[in-house]
């Protein structure tokens, strides 16, 4: 294991101690003041802002490949042959690529609201040396915060009878084909691909407006097979990034808007728990990941906080 992986996963400090220090700092009081909306909240992800974001970071250097996935979510390493995974908010492919590299028989469906992100992800996957990566990577454009996932993932009939279904094989997946819009569809002989074994929400839900999060999580629940797992990783309350926002960047309760128009929410364990259990999930793991990193050039210590979660659809 690399030193980078070890540092990323270690718990370098106690979250409660950080919370006490932050809440007792008068210069940061504006983070905890009541928020009064000045205008109506957006009903979906700001697709245009995310397109511009990914266009600016088209080289991919902004994102590091998430090699920690198999350490944090070992179920991926031990998954059955021909398992299907849906990555929601795939960005530039930094999650999909290590999964495709380490599991030769897994099929990765990946969606994002940004066509720029999908282009970057496709380029990254196609440029890799991973055997059969192209055929096992299925990107499609989708805003899961406002639209129900397409029926070819899990149709209503199969959703109702999914308790009796076995894992689909890759021969079933071969019935998938791309339509003129680039979205994967099915041949007329098949109704859907039977649902997902895994769903990943890695630094995605925080970009969804708070009032849309419950519906978005429910959509993830709907496309999982019974017993399927959702892996969650996102910004935690009092993360360094949150504290850098100025008072005029607040757009809601623990919600902030960056200068480029993209948004970010910072989760507490209670809020994350309520969202996933409210959608029907069973909590398997939920904790803060607290990492202290040092910018050697600036001699500055940074306290990073992420929420790590693992949730299961009941059998």
From TrEMBL:
GO terms for biological process: methylation. Its EC number is 2.1.1.-. Gene3D superfamilies: Vaccinia Virus protein VP39. It is an enzyme of class 2 (transferase). One of its GO terms (molecular function) is S-adenosylmethionine-dependent methyltransferase activity. InterPro entries: METTL2/6/8-like, SAM-dependent_MTases_sf. Keywords: Methyltransferase, Transferase. Belongs to the methyltransferase superfamily. METL family. S-adenosyl-L-methionine-dependent methyltransferase. This is tRNA N(3)-methylcytidine methyltransferase. It comes from Helianthus annuus (Common sunflower).
């Amino acid at each position: 294991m690399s030193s980078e992986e070890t540092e990323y996963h270690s718990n370098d400090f106690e979250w409660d101690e950080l919370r006490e220090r932050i809440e007792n700092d008068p210069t940061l009081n504006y983070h905890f003041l009541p928020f009064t909306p000045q205008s109506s909240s957006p009903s979906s992800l700001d697709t245009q802002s995310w397109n511009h974001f990914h266009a600016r970071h088209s080289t991919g250097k902004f994102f590091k490949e998430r090699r920690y996935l198999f350490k944090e979510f070992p179920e991926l390493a031990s998954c059955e042959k021909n398992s299907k995974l849906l990555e929601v908010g795939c960005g530039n492919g930094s999650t999909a690529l290590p999964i495709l590299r380490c599991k030769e028989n897994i099929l990765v469906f990946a969606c994002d609201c940004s066509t720029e992100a999908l282009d970057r992800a496709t380029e990254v996957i196609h440029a890799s040396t991973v055997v059969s990566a192209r055929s096992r990577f299925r990107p499609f454009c989708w805003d899961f915060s406002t639209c129900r996932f397409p029926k070819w993932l899990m149709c209503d009939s199969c959703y109702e009878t999914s308790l009796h279904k076995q894992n689909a094989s890759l021969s079933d997946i071969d019935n998938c084909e791309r339509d003129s819009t680039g979205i994967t569809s099915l041949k007329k002989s098949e109704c859907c691909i039977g649902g997902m074994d895994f769903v990943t929400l890695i630094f995605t839900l925080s970009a969804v407006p708070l009032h849309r999060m419950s519906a978005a999580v429910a959509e993830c629940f709907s496309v999982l097979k019974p017993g399927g797992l959702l892996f969650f990783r996102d910004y935690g309350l009092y993360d360094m990034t949150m504290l850098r926002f100025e008072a005029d960047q607040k757009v809601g309760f623990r919600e902030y808007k960056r200068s480029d128009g993209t948004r970010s929410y910072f989760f507490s364990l209670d809020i994350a728990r309520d969202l996933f259990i409210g959608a029907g999930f069973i909590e398997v793991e939920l904790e803060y990941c607290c990492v202290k990193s040092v910018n050697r050039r600036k001699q500055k210590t940074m306290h990073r906080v992420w929420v790590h979660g693992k949730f299961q659809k009941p059998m």
